[in-house]
Amino acid sequence: MHRTMSSIALLTTTLLVATAAVSGPAAASGSTGVTRDSILTAAAGIREPDIATGPATDAAVRQIVGRACAADLDGAAQLYQWRASSVDGPGVTGLVVRAAIVEPDGSGSTTSRICAFAAMTPSTSSEHRLSGSYTFGVEVGYTETRELKGLMSGSVQLTTVLSVPRDRYVSAAYLTAAGSSQRTVHTTVESRVETPKTKKQLKTARATLVKSNAAAKRTYKKAVKAAHGSKAKKTGALKRYRASRARAEKVYLRATRTFVIKRTGHTDVESEAFTVKASNYEEIY
Predict the structure, then answer these.
(1) Nearest-angstrom CA–CA distance, 87 and 278
(2) Are 39 and 156 in contact (CB under 8 A)?
(3) Which residues of the chain have pLDDT under 50?
(4) 24, 168, 180, 191: which has the fewest C-beta neighbours closer than 10 Å?
């Protein structure tokens, strides 16, 4: 099957898309604004031939290419063609991309380049983070091979980006990566710890309660007497009296309680190891 624009060339999970007609050094790895959602959408579209021509897949790839290759695809730059293969492994997904980009050269003409890179993200959840290492390589002009190695970290991993003038021709791009997709989980475990009380402790706690309540009552009576019939002052005195009794009751209950609830925090790391390989060799016309 071989088509352009409204059609597609497919080989296993490798995809060719021609989007429109109209160079630079390697860029550092990282994410550069590429989102996890765009990687998931693009990889799913490339993986499933029935939806690979859909607008969601094309929009996701354009977003990734525009960010990764520093190309103003909403402005003067044009994405002429792209090829991508899906990256699939336990806990990780992504794509290997070669994109033909045409841009103004500042002199009224245009220049073309091939931008190649790979993008990966945890497939399990947005809370997972990648770790490990990768090797990303390209074949230039069928004779020269360039390989770049790097470390993975974070929820979105972009390999080092290679941009080559189109007349040099990037005939293939490939990725090998090994590492893990991890998530740190914090949990709190509650346990009941018995704290038995002696008869003496219970008796002391009861006596303290009685003494506190008696003192609160004396204070209340004095406040009522000093209110001289003022309803507001009497109401205030009653509130203070009730609050004093409530505090004394809490102290008593704490002193006589025969158990406590102990809360212990635990930190666990969920990890899924992966080793992935992906490549694409289809021509860019």
Answers:
(1) 6
(2) yes
(3) 1-28
(4) 191
